[in-house]
Amino acid sequence: MSSDQWPAVPVDATDAADTTGTPHPREAIDASPTAIPAVDDASDKQLGRLAATVARLREEVEQAHAAADGRALVEMARGVLVERLRCGPTQAAKHLADLAHAADVTELELAADIVSQAAQDRLTDAARDFLDRVAHETPADATQPPPADGADPTVRLRTAESGVLAAGDTQTVAESLLEHALKPLDATAVAVWAAGPGTSLRLAGHAGFQPDEADQWHYVPPGVATPARQALLTRRSLWYPAWTANELPSIGRRGGPYGSRMAVPASTEGRIQGVLEVAWPRRQPPLSPQIRRQIEALAELVGHTLESLPHTAAQWPQAGAGTSSELIELADGLRDPVLLLRPHFGPDGTLTDFRIHHVNPWFKDPAGRSAAAVTGALLLEAYPMVAGEGGLLEMIEHVHATGEPFRAAGMNFTALVGQVPVTGPADISISRHGAVVLFVWRIEDEAARLARLLQHAQRLGRIGAFEESFLTNEVTWNSQLFDLFGLPDDATPTRLEQVGSHAHGDDAAPLGRFLRTVLHHRRPATAAFRLLRPDGVIRHMRIVAEPVLDSAGHLNGVRGAYQDISAQHWTEVALAATRDQLALSEQQTAESNRLARQLQHAIMPPTHGPIDAPGLEIAVRYRPAEDDSLVGGDWYDAIVLPSQQVLLSVGDVAGHGISAATGMVALRNALRGLATTGAGPAQLLTWLNLVAHHLTQRVTATAICALYDPETHILRWARAGHLPPLLVRAGEPATVPSLDGLLLGAVSEAVYEEGQVRLEYGDVLLMYTDGLIERRDRSLQESLDQLLTTVRRPAEALDQRLDQMLTHSSADTDDDTCVIGIHLRAPAA
């Protein structure tokens, strides 16, 4: 880029006026019509002249500082020429002036180029990237405007570097960075934070912020989230396009309006020495990668400065951050395995690993190696599994970079034993002391593992152990026992003889027997009591104790345990109440079933006396269920009506128990009353359906209703969802053709079909309920076929036929069964 595009920064104040054509400050002020307003008053004129003088002197001071920084950069370039040309300082100065004149650039620009070519560092790369981007980027493509002063980035960065190197404190460093490198990027303030113990931060230098606010932010303790701390913990540059103090507080929050912020870690050799925080007064567009690299290069320069300036390190009183010998003494004094790790850098200067500098005497390698075999080795060589062990290596790098300590309990630690990974839980502690990382781990041994298991078992079982020594008069409780008694951990444990003071008064007698058995008879004993806790909670406890005797049989102490059995106690109480309730329910159920059985037997006895009907032989059988809980609603009826017709009916109410029995009584009696009207079987079932649907507790039932006329020998019948009757004629049984009819109570209105059968002399008609044939493992048709086979067997009398049907019944539901049989006898000769 040519010098007319990026005007040179003058070497001194007098040269600046000659080389750039800029008028003298006094002339500039006098020539400006608005610099000093024209007034008539003489005193105002004097004040105006004084103000102009102050402004001129301030500008001259600033130019003097810039010239001084420029001269430092020129002197660095002359030193490079002395080394490369093997000449003296005078020849080097003359050679630099000749080269600048020949190249048509200022000595400052040429000096910056010479230093950058000699250094080839991050500043050089940042400047070169920026120049390459500007050279190939059109204005329409530009995402970042060029610097406001138009200065060559190489000159700016190298001038800032020379100012930093010449600075004697970090405050001067901050001012130099802002003046020479960041102001051209429109930044108005900069803060240099030095990292301290526990990720604390101290304001090491600042520029552009109000002095009183800088005093308030001189120290940021650990735990306060700021942009600088976020950059420290994340170890990367953070850009805040619209920073607000309400979101993340930081210095400058009273200087609004708030603009953009950038926080960049300042590190050296993998360690973050501090953070460079840059502030813009207005919201900025996203910084280009080249500008970000320039700021990151400045942060690296800040990191080297924070490390090198002696007063910066002295601000932090770091306990344990002494010499290597002091750290070794500290590690050797710890009773856990300790590794002292030093950072190991690759050829390019990046952190690649950690070298084991020292192991303490308590070190025990999981793979069985000696301390000498591990000392001096790289961490990844000795323990390669840390690279993937839950990010352990990354955590060590994080502690080394930020200084934030790391603690973890029960973390898995894996070591290779003969190429076989062996994993075990370990307590890990990682901390940074100066440039050394202290890595401590505690692997559980067998005793610790058993103690942990015992502790978990006591916690799960709500058990607390105690031990009482009569020799030392000391009582020892574990932590679980304090929790059971509702006492704080620092409370005085209760002696065994005083446990009665914490118990319910009604439990004094069993506790007294317990104490006499243990302390007087010297035998193990147990007792249960109610514990009155200080918080008012009553717990049911069981105490188990045994005496501790010496060889002569003297009582030296007592040891034992308390167990909270409240859950068991209340479970037993609930079970007892449940058993009582169950017994009462069983008693009530048995009583209900007994009443249902008595009701059925009173209305329908298992056998029935002879029924006087003209020309008919009538027999009935009722077989109740064997289980009283299965008492159902089956019924039968056979009576002679006033019209001399014979009413025959069977039915089955759905369900079991007293409700089914009472429903059966209601339907049976209703049918008897309705039959006296002289209506036919279909009409009777229609009325009986209304009774079942409206006048009962929604009873549903199946039924057959038949009326036999002795004069015509005609049997009229209708069915409501019931099995059709059987007709045995000439010894051959057959099912009477079925009729349509819905079960009773299902709907409010139902229509039933009526059929009729003319009986012949010798015919037998059988009606029954489903308890006679129903089986769980076969269809209804198969059960009917089995019934027909049974009925085919010859029988001498009607009663014998009914008994035979019950005897050979294949039903397996243990349900009630009703059977009615009528036999039309031939008239006597």
Automatic annotation (TrEMBL):
Highest taxon, organism lineage: Bacteria
SMART domains per record: ANTAR, PP2C_SIG
PAC domain mapped to chain residues: 525-577
Domain named ANTAR: residues: 54-115
InterPro entries in the cross-refs: ANTAR (IPR005561), Bact_Sigma-Reg (IPR052016), GAF (IPR003018), GAF-like_dom_sf (IPR029016), PAS (IPR000014), PAS-assoc_C (IPR000700), PAS-like_dom_sf (IPR035965), PAS_fold_3 (IPR013655)
Keywords annotated in UniProt: Hydrolase
Pfam hit, one: SpoIIE
Region (Disordered): 1-35
Name of protein: SpoIIE family protein phosphatase
